[in-house]
Write the structure tokens for this entry.
Amino acid sequence: MTSSDDGGYVHDPSTFDEDSDSRDEDEEWVDDPAHPATADREFDWRGWILVGVMFFAFIVSPAMILLVPPGLEYRFALIILPLFPAALLALTAVWATTRA
């Protein structure tokens, strides 16, 4: 069985070259992209919240696990417990860098 017998899709690159004028209107930014320096990249209150969460995730949380070990089993204390500050840091980083 060949790809031409099965009645399915067969990719032919030459058909895309013939129809080069069928670009969407939404793709204008590709021809003239905005310079990164023109974007609104001010270090505002979102940045300071991210710095605070980083301080908590890298300094406060490990120090608390080290100095005040939980009375829980080993796996929870050293694997699961650090997962919460890491998840908080990941969510805050995505939130802080996303502009509406």
